[in-house]
């Protein structure tokens, strides 16, 4: 089984896959007379297809055991999907570029505590994977008619490891 070790997620190394949702970017400015700072335009929510609209939901995810046997990734053909953690804990992010016939090799990242991600429409990704304990997330994705879920089961599984020292 191919072994993949997750690497720390940064704006730079995740840029080819999607958007990072945190306060580490440069696009921020004061609002409300200086009583608040807005971290602006971190990601775009995409919603296409019949009766499409952008949804804001919450998800309580249960943790996965590691090393993880990754057998499947999914994508959403009609819209993007963002996961913003409501607690300052890292979670695992799996993404793939498009391959010749389905997803390419998986790339595994571990977020910084509190960091969220946005998968653009049709980005292959692993399902939500908390680490160590249950974690709540805000989810921004697409609602509407039609099937917005496409799954791909790999012909061979991948063994996903967390970096040494991850809780
Ligand atoms: N179905 C759902 O809300 N979540 C998945 O799409 C996922 O990416 O975890
Ligand atoms: Ni998804």
TrEMBL record:
Record keywords, A-Z: Hydrolase, Lyase, Purine metabolism
Highest taxon listed in the record's lineage: Bacteria
EC number(s) on file: 4.3.2.3
CDD domains per the UniProt record, alphabetical: cupin_UAH
Classification via InterPro entries: RmlC_Cupin_sf (IPR011051), UAH_cupin (IPR047233), Ureidogly_lyase (IPR007247), Ureidogly_lyase_bac (IPR023525), Ureidoglycolate_lyase_dom_sf (IPR024060)
Pathway listed: Nitrogen metabolism; (S)-allantoin degradation
Keyword Lyase: yes
Catalytic reactions on record: (S)-ureidoglycolate = urea + glyoxylate
Pfam family, one: Ureidogly_lyase
The keyword Hydrolase is assigned to this record: yes
GO function terms (MF aspect): ureidoglycolate hydrolase activity; ureidoglycolate lyase activity
Cofactors, names only: Ni(2+)
UniProt GO BP: allantoin catabolic process; purine nucleobase catabolic process
Subunit structure: Homodimer.
Function statement: Catalyzes the catabolism of the allantoin degradation intermediate (S)-ureidoglycolate, generating urea and glyoxylate. Involved in the utilization of allantoin as nitrogen source.
Family according to the record: Belongs to the ureidoglycolate lyase family.
Name of this chain's protein: Ureidoglycolate lyase
Organism classification: Bacteria, Pseudomonadati, Pseudomonadota, Alphaproteobacteria, Hyphomicrobiales
